[in-house]
User: Fold these one by one.
Assistant:
Number 1:
Amino acid sequence: MRSRSRLVPALGAFLLLVLAGCTSNAPLDTLDPAGRKAHDIDNLLMFVVSIAGVIFVGVFGALAFIAWKFRVRKPGSDDTHYPGDYADEVFPAQSHGNFNLEIGWTIAPTILMTVIAVVSLTALVKLDDVKAAPPDASYPDMEVIVVGQQWWWEYQYYLHGTEGATEPDFVTADEMIIPVGQDVQFFTTSRDVIHSFWIPRLNGKKDAAPGRIHPWVIQADEVGRFAGSCTEFCGLSHAYMRMYTVALPDDQFAQWVDNQMTPRTPLAEGDPNYEGEQLFIANCQRCHVIIGVTERNRNADDALEPDDMAMYGNIEDYRDYSDGTFTQGKYTEPGNLTAGAAPNLTHFAARTSYAGSFFDLYPDAQERTEAGGYLDNAGSAFDRGTLEAWLRNPPAVKPNYAEGLRGMPNLNLSEADIDLLVDYLVSLD
């Protein structure tokens, strides 16, 4: 009875730990690789886990057999080891100094660990190759700057590479879109504290640190929408800082790029959503930008001057950007906890998530993307209630420190203004 009373709470605690790792709105599946680098990681994991599993079964199987074979039996039972009583000092026959066994269990683990080390080092060398393989695609030189900040991700696209560029071709947030099957070169950095970029089905983790730039590669074997999360504790809303990488066929990716590079035209008085656009200009443009409608976002889109690049130095010896051609936008000095930037919303409704990808704008986004319909947002119903709640009181639905310029503040909008803003935002496809 005592054993049972201890077993039930232990089993309950174990089940709670298992359930704590289950979620439906942000599945981080590390055991279902969908990219070249992720397959390398998975192959290494399966190799090591298989060996560890065999050893586990062998060791604990032997212990279980010994415990059963030499167990203490009831007095009077036919037991050659403990005849008739529980004598404290009666032990089975002891053996010592078996030379062959001692040599065997010394040499065997040495050989085994050597094999594991060779396989592990081979995989690590492959993962340490952070240069994208030359693709045969529409944008073979494309590079992306991935910028972490509290608590969302920004993506600056350089369709023809960063070398010689003075500014990104376009800037988006929350979802990084890539062509399926193509290695995409990207670089992680941060505007405030240390973050870590991780799309488990496509590659391992890469830190995004202020004042530094880390090269990395991402690639997907299949069309899909792959969830990720920040994996470096970065403050109040760390658990709500998510992102997606979406892999599209080449023709759809080119269509998406053309759309992203198209600025918006200011609405004329009397046009649908004109009032919503005016509300956006009055309340939101101090932080957000809509290319063609608002003033250029001084935080997210300004180019670094050549002298500002001194704080970055030679970027991991990967490429020398000392001439200042590697434009990243405005970044704070390391140690500054205020990013001073907000997501570019030019094509807000073309994305499927917002607020650091914590909320899905379209409930059917995952299934629709896997079916090849990521671009078909116009025909999909959006979650109006959640977007309204976000505009009504952002700190109430996603913890932040807006008074310290970290996170979106409560703008105290009226219900009528919220309706107008929602209608305007979902028109930005």
Number 2:
Amino acid sequence: MGQPNPIQEPPIDPLADTNPSLTIRQVQLDSRSEATGGWRRGAGFVSLLGAAVLTAAAALLILLPMPAPSPAPTEAPQTVATNTTPPTEVVIVPTAIIDPANPGVLPTLPPDAAAVLLGQPVAAAVDNDPLAIERDNYTPFTIVKQERPRGEVINYTAVQGDTIYTVAQRFQIKPESIAWSNTRRIVLVLRPGDVLNIPPVDGVYVQVVGSKTIAEWAAQYQVQDPYVVIDSEYNSIGGSTPETILPSGTWIFIPGGLGEDITWNPGVTVEQGTGARQGFVTSFAPGDPGSCGNVDNPGGGAAWANPLPGGTYVRGFSSFHPGIDLSAPPGTPIRAANSGAVIFAGWNSWGYGNTVVLAHGPFLTLYGHMSSIAVRCGQLVPAGSVIGGVGNTGNSSGPHLHFEIRNGQTQSDPLATIPNLGL
């Protein structure tokens, strides 16, 4: 008979699921099971032995004293390798180290290392090492760009509002240099669209005409050494001699040359009066210290008189000298050439010095370089009355009267109106 089964199967319910409620595997105990148990006991012994060794090692680490902490790194060492041939030296660029405590912060170069590197200009890499840079001992410097002076005569086109003075100021030369380098008509009036020769420095830019030598052209403009013209960087006449006659039509620049005296032309307005203002409304050089502004001008008389009886005629009227010069001792009385209204009395900044201007209907008379003024703005003066004294003020080379007659803006030869002036 077989051995009794100690586990009792519960009774089967015919109405329940037909699957068994519990499945049991019976364990077989035979000789193979005994062998397997011995191997497992050996593996367990080895595991216990390893655990004991690890425990002993941990205890040893705990009982040993802790080593002192190493200092935190501050910067990489800087090594300078010098060449045997002075003064060149080789600088190894220091490498900045990231602080482990602040890994998100970018490293910075120490100030002393930066000063060493910035103090020497970079020359070239040494031995193909990108970090070893050869530097010389020259002091770093900065080149500042400066304006270079012009090396030639240029052309400038005048625009509305330009005067010889404003153009000269723009190009930093004297207004006389512009006048001497162009047609003298611009001295009388400068119109928008006029093309001007602008010399690079003060002097005279002239077109050669006739058979004068270079020496003669230089002497005409008060330059004694003709080689100043020949050797000038502004001319292309190298190889010439003082006796050279340049082809007619050649333009040359005479550095430092001086032309004739220039008497400048201030602004003038002459308008017919309207309404209660009968006659004319006239102004001369508005904005100048001696200008009287707009002045009512009833008109002048029919007779003209010599403004400087006893004066000596020294210079006549021309396209670049819009009047005549009469010399006389300083203080000699100057008289009104016709009856009229004073529209200017005082200092004139256009070269006339102390000046009086009278309006005679559409005509004006100008008296320049005076030593004294005896009239005031708006005053009506009769012909022959004293208006001031002879002087040497303004652009003048000696005591004399500069006398002009104008019809509005246009100058005319005073000798055509008063034939006996200075004669």
